[in-house]
Amino acid sequence: xxxxxxxxxxxxGRGSNFEAIADSIQSGRLAAEIAIVISNRADAAGLDSxxxxxxxxxxxxxxxxxREEHDAEVVSALQQAGxxxxxxxxxxxxxxxxxxxxxxxRILNIHPSLLPxxxxxxxxxxxxxxxxxxxxxxxxxxxxxxxxxxxxLQKIVPVLESDDDxxxxxxxxxxxxxxxxxxxxxxxxxxxxxxxxxxxxxQRSVEAR
Length: 209
Ligand code: GRF
Prior knowledge:
- The mean pLDDT is 96.
- The protein is an alpha/beta fold.
- The longest helix has 25 residues, at 165-189.
- 34% of the residues lie in helices and 24% in strands.
- The protein has two domains: 1-103, 3-Layer(aba) Sandwich (Rossmann fold); 110-209, Formyl transferase, N-terminal domain (Rossmann fold, 3-Layer(aba) Sandwich), CATH 3.40.50.170.
- The protein is built from six helices and nine strands; from the N terminus they run E-H-E-H-E-H-E-H-E-H-E-E-H-E-E.
- It has helices at residues 16-26, 45-52, 67-80, 97-102, 123-130, 165-189; strands at 5-11, 32-39, 57-59, 85-88, 107-111, 134-141, 151-158, 192-195, 198-201.
- Helix 1 (16-26) packs across helix 6 and helix 5 (123-130) crosses helix 6.
- The protein has a seven-stranded mixed beta sheet with strand order 3-2-1-4-5-6-7, sandwiched between helices. A two-stranded antiparallel ribbon has the order 8-9.
- 5-O-phosphono-beta-D-ribofuranosylamine is lined by residues 11, 13-17, 46, 89-90, 110-112, 173, 176.
């Protein structure tokens, strides 16, 4: 059997998506290993939970630093950890082109809306104010543009008339926690192709089944 693929998780805050990924691995639902967790903020709760789980948790502060220099340090930490796939989990930084080039189609992000609707910050508030009847979450490959890379999967969540941005965020978050591990599993399986903007699942050959 080949060794489990290595994930690098980047986060800036609460880290509930990181926790969900770690739980999926622990329970055997996702065949992978978290090789490193990196935060750009010392006060990120996700960094503490990574330490409590005994993971390799590293702080690389970004405040006051030139983006390219900070990114180069993060890329080098990921490479040293032998990471196959980088998962942004509430990482509040736009990646520089050099970072994206270092891991072509190997960086994933999760966003709490059905992209391309409501990119950027305050996605839930944007959805409520626009009056959409459904929203959800999107896992996508990362390119140099904010929330714009090819879409891997989306989950739909109804927007209720009683919703405010907090209640909507909580229901979308439940789906995020399912979607991210599913998307990682799919990407690690290699059974897909990126055709322009479209991520297309490859049919498994009869022998492989
Ligand atoms: C999530 O809503 C995610 O979609 C967005 O940032 C939030 C991070 O939450 N990119 P958490 O830190 O994973 O709890």
